[in-house]
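hey so u asked for the seq, here:
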Amino acid sequence: MRAQFVLSEIGVGLRRNLTMTFAVVVSVALSLALFGGSLLMSDQVTTMKGYWYDKVNVSIFLCNKSDAESDPHCAKGAVTDDQKKSILADLQKMDVVEKVTYESQDEAYKHYKQQFGDSPLASSLTPDQMQESYRIKLKNPQKYQVIATAFDGRDGVQSVQDQKGILDNLFGLLNGMNWAARAVMALMLVVALMLIVNTVRVSAFSRRRETGIMRLVGASGFYIQAPFIAEAAVAGLIGGTVACGFLVVARYFIIDHGLALSQKLNLINFIGWDAVLTKLPLILATSLLMPALAAFFALRKYLKV
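ran it, structure tokens below
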């Protein structure tokens, strides 16, 4: 009988404040969709870091004749065969190095033509103007500084470059976007909480006569509060369900179909469905507990029961 009463009161409350209930559902849905999106963005950045950092190379560019005339790092002249052998031998002795690949001037020229063949500068370059280099695959991409310290400024070395620096700029941008999404999410959560509190207060005010009678006949505080808390929880749960739908639909149309980024951007390792599905229970739990707790604390002050 009590359960039936609580359920009937939930239905009455939701119908009486239909407009505010709809606003709560929408605000909760948007805020939790942003919450889930920010979590998925973090997973995506982590996945991309693991994928790309594993492919990062450190490049040691060697001096050529042109560098000897114009670059102060190559003031002692172009790299010699003995210097190249010495650099290679030292690289192979280092524990942080997984693999070393040598690229000749002809190979560098061929790769440059493949990538920038349409550039006006490409037609004026010759193979002897290109730099020989050692491409080093590290066991741990974070250990770039070990290579830089050992070889930067060494005779025959023009420069030591780390591809990780380029990726760090990209991931810095993605992390910045993720924090911006979290800031918007926090703002939307505050708006949702304010709407929940106001909705509960309006509902309690519209039923103040009933709650007054219930207090007079000795009803417990929880028994009086339960319908209001349940109303907020139900509205929040509906919003959470909509947020989950947003995430599933977004993953389906943006990555798999529609935009089909997984097919168009083969160089990006996108998160899978497992990452999405593991976030849905958290979103649903948050959508249920957040409104219920907000309603509970609002009612303690407003109804003073």
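The mean pLDDT is 80. The longest helix spans residues 164-206.
lmk if thats what u needed
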